[in-house]
Amino acid sequence: MILAFWNITPQVFADAVALGAVYALMAVGIGLVFGVLRLVNFAYGQLVMAGAFGLALASEWGWPLWAGIVLCFAVVLALSLAMDYLVFRPLRGRTPAVMLVATFAVAFLLQSIALVWFGPLGKIASSFGDLSRPVTISGVDIRKITIVAIVVAVVCLAALTLLLERTTIGLQMRAASMDSQTARLLGVRANRVIGTAVLISGALAAVVAVILTVSSPLVTPDFALRDTIVVLAGVVLGGLNRPLSATLGGFSIGFASGLLGGTLPTDQSQYLPTFLFAAVIIILLVRPAGVFARGNAVERV
Amino acid sequence: MRRLVELQQLLAPVVLVIATAIVGTVVSSSTETYFTDALVKVAIVVALYVFIGNSGVLSFGQISFVALGAWTAGVLSVPRSEKPAIMPNLAHALAEHTTGNLTSLFFAALVGGACAFIVGVPLMRLSGLAAGIATFAVLEITHNLLRYQEKIGPGLNTFSSVPETTGLRQAALGALLAVVIAYVYARSRFGRLLRATREDSAAARAVGASVYHQRLLAFTASGLLAGLAGGLYVHLLPLNTEAVYLDLTFITLAMLVIGGATSLWGAVVGALAVSALDSYLAIAENGTTILGHPIDLPAGTRVIVVGALMALMLILRPTGITGGREFKLWPRATS
Fold first, then answer.
1. Which residues in chain A have Cβ-Cβ distances shorter than 8 Å to B250?
2. Which residue stretches of B28-100 are H helix?
3. Which residue in B has a C-alpha nearest to residue A275's C-alpha?
4. Quick one: angle between helices B168-187 and B189-199, nearest 10?
5. Contact list, B316 vs chain A (CB under 8 Å)
């Protein structure tokens, strides 16, 4: 195990960073909604799955690349709003555990709708072949999508930070996620803030859908399900109290999982989930409120 | 009078289970399987209720103990001559021995309970979201290990050649045993203390209840029943790792939530009601007729309906069909 860490090639490292970047985007998407609603969205992966099916359908119909991406965003944003209106709104104020079970049900619901609609074999999004070819940078082969993923993630996270730090709606979102009752008393309109958070979270899911579809073009109904489970663990590990700690948690678990996947010897690589989730349990026991959480989050009487 | 009121809380689920078993004997043998399956589901959901219902802590991990129980009973009861064919890499000690039906079920419960205790010792410190994620991690690890560890089971293969001893009678007896144990636990001092911590953790601690110890006890008891249910399950139909993973976690949690998570009555009603709906939809997926109209639902409809029902129930009536209360023939009699 320890020795395996010495075999980190640049390709493995770059892929791990890219996976971390994608998981960080998902983590922000989950963290933003949690911030304003106290709701962990288990069905986040199914938003990504729906977007990926949008891309696959567009490529099947022979649409140009940009139209496919527009369709992907349209599908994911519409579904996010529907989810907010039909599920999140009636659930407001319940305990996080109840909402987690409810979104667990929604996740299965959406997955089986996709299963009935598209069949278990799924569809292939073929128009992105070019992006998964490697480019050579100073003797190292790196797939183009790896670079694109990292750049896109950095740009998205920077834009989001600017939005949260420099605009009124960003200020309101931070206020609502810190103490939504006081924020409302001070004139923050809850529905507008929540709607914005849900839309941004949906847009991030669409971005993730595009990146994941390029790196694995076969879109099945359980697309992104495994990623969501890992990201959820990462988000809780990082700490859900602040978007930043959730993001760091998502990045860390993606990076760790990428490194482990690339460096474990072949006879052990099938046990990757065991190593990963054992680490999750150990870290949760040491820091139940999150590794990057600030202060003491233990409930007091 | 008061004893009678308390006793009906045991009798109602017992009568329901027995009635299901009796109806199961009169239907055709192809439909009988659905009844047997429903009774095994009752045992699993009652196991979930013992921990989740009494403690109010969410756990995605109880199906791990169902899986471990299934693996234990399965490995122990495959005939010795057939073990090399389906489990060539089995550990020597396991390959040499084969036990009977009851012994295998006993060990299934034992392994389920022991593993739950081992997992519970560190995990019961957690609550809320951290508990949800940590128990999910337990499910992932169990699934991963059972899938690739061929020393303790068939790995990726299906558990074929396990004697199919779980008929209606064994399933009903298993479900009854689970119901009785769950009732005795819930009525005991320990069950009451755990429910007190669920309702008001601070107040319960103030009167001296240890949240940690009470949860650990319930988690272990739940693991024991889950292991037993897993043993029943593997004797019912050939399982593989996918059969005791996310889908089963989803459907059994849905049963518990739809029935009403905080009562034994809710667990039994939910398991049977959702099983009935699920079986009916399964038949409809293969083509059937309603009032002379042929219907042929596409595969996957069952999960859509059950998922929608579970989401609706959580949104509109989070306490479930039974309101999360125990059965009472005379409402407001005494309490």
1. 104-105, 108
2. 29-48, 54-55, 62-77, 83-86, 92-96
3. B141
4. 70
5. 90
A240 touches B at CB < 8 Å: yes
| HSE-CB of A139 using CA atoms within 13 angstroms | 1
- Per the CB < 8 A criterion, the answer to whether B253 and B94 are in contact is no
Distance between start and end Cα atoms, chain A: 44
Q: Which two tokens stand for residue B272?
A: 């049977």
Nearest residue, CB atoms, A97 vs list B125, B129, B148: B129
Q: Is A140 on the interface with B (CB under 8 A)?
A: no
- Encoded tokens for A180: 């939504």
- Residue A98: closest CA among chain B residues belongs to which residue? B314
Residue B169: burial class (beta carbons within 10 Å; 0-12, 13-18, 19+): middle
- What domains sit in chain A, N to C, each tagged with a CATH number? 3-286 (1.10.3470)
* pLDDT tens readout for residues A156-214: 989 988 988 889 888 888 888 777 788 888 888 888 888 999 999 999 999 999 999 98
Backbone φ, ψ for residue A140 (5° rounding): -110, 130
Taken as a whole, chain B contains a residue count of: 335
**Exposed e or buried b per residue across A167-201, where buried means at least 16 C-beta atoms within 10 angstroms of its C-beta:** eebbebbbbbbeebeebeeeebebeebbbbbbbbb
- Considering only CB atoms, A97 lies closest to which of B58, B134, B316, namely B58
Distance between CA atoms of A263 and B321, rounded to whole angstroms?
50
- Residue the block writes with tokens 């079986």: B279
Nearest residue of B to residue A85, measured between CA atoms: B315
Name the closest residue on chain A to residue B206, using Cα atoms. Answer: A301
What are the boundaries of each domain within chain B? 9-242
Smallest CA–CA separation between B291 and chain A, in Å? 25
The residue that leads in pLDDT, B308 or B216, is B216
pLDDT tens digits, B115-124 = 999 999 999 9
Complex ipTM value: 0.89
CA B34 from chain centre, in angstroms, equals 16
Looking at the DSSP bridge assignments, the partners of residue B295 are B288
Q: What is the pLDDT of residues B281-318, one digit of tens each?
A: 888 877 776 666 777 777 778 888 888 888 888 888 88
